[in-house]
Design goal:
mainly alpha, MetI-like fold, 2 domains, globular, disordered C terminus
């Protein structure tokens, strides 16, 4: 346990030190060059804005996080279910899977205005955009994991009269877990993007709305404080997925397997 904790601390040391060095360089550069806060506030001023306006930031952060987590969860469930259909259904695999892959080239963010027209300016459009953006990489990664199994093991299981259900849970699912978690790492970041873009386009709450409002008021410290809170929240959600992966895929080290992306 102590060795594992020591390893985690060592892994975190470098990014923490580099982040501190970057923030210190940023602070010094702004002070020395005399850059106005309206252009680029120093990190200390951004931190002061976070403390001074924490209630405002938290008020707008909650709806964004709620929609992000809900959209992410729906994309994971839907993506895995569609991946299972792709694996076991020839019609779905030959008819719909190529369409899903080709649809990756469509910039989903450009669909945001259409969602506003179709579903209004409420939370529904933000949620659906988050699901849409996060769904495709989840589906592609999960499908790849279900299909890339060792054929010798698969034939052996069939030889020993293993049912399709047993083969799925004992062979396909364990093989697909690293790919599924790889897709989840991509999807959580894309879900955040979907929610924020939707809040940019039309919303009266959320971090995206607050960033747009602060930009209109030329309140750069508040804008960067909102971006910082969003980044910290996204990093925390990503970290939770990594922790879950370490427990679920305990037989191998966490990896960043990812076949799909794009937003």
């Amino acid at each position: 346990m102590q060795a594992k904790l020591r390893s985690i601390l060592v892994d975190l040391a470098w990014p923490v030190l580099i982040t501190i060095a970057m923030l210190a360089s940023w602070e010094i550069a702004v002070r020395v060059l005399g850059i106005r806060s309206i252009i680029l506030p120093p990190p200390s001023e951004v931190f002061e804005a976070i403390i001074a306006r924490r209630e405002l930031l938290l008020t707008h952060l909650w709806p964004s996080l709620y929609l992000t987590v809900l959209g992410f969860a729906l994309s994971v469930v839907g993506g895995v279910l569609v991946a299972i259909l792709i694996t076991y259904s020839t019609i779905v695999r030959k008819g719909f899977y190529p369409v899903i892959v080709v649809s990756q080239v469509i910039p989903k963010i450009s669909i945001a205005p259409l969602f506003i027209v179709w579903f209004g300016t409420g939370t529904m459009s933000s949620l659906l955009l988050a699901v849409l953006i996060a769904f495709f990489p989840m589906t592609i990664n999960a499908a790849m994991g279900f299909q890339t199994i060792d054929e010798d093991i698969h034939r052996m299981a069939r030889t020993f009269m293993g049912s399709r259900w047993q083969i799925f849970w004992k062979i396909r699912m364990p093989n697909a877990l690293p790919y599924i978690f790889g897709g989840m790492k991509i999807s959580i970041t894309l879900a955040i993007i979907g929610v924020i873009v939707s809040e940019f386009v039309a919303s009266q709450e959320g971090i995206g709305y607050l960033i747009k409002l602060a930009g209109g008021l030329l309140d750069t410290p508040l804008m960067m404080a909102a971006i910082t809170m969003l980044s910290i929240s996204g990093l925390a959600l990503y970290g939770l997925i990594v922790i879950a992966e370490e427990h679920a895929v305990y037989w191998q080290a966490p990896s960043d397997i990812g076949a799909g992306g794009g937003g």
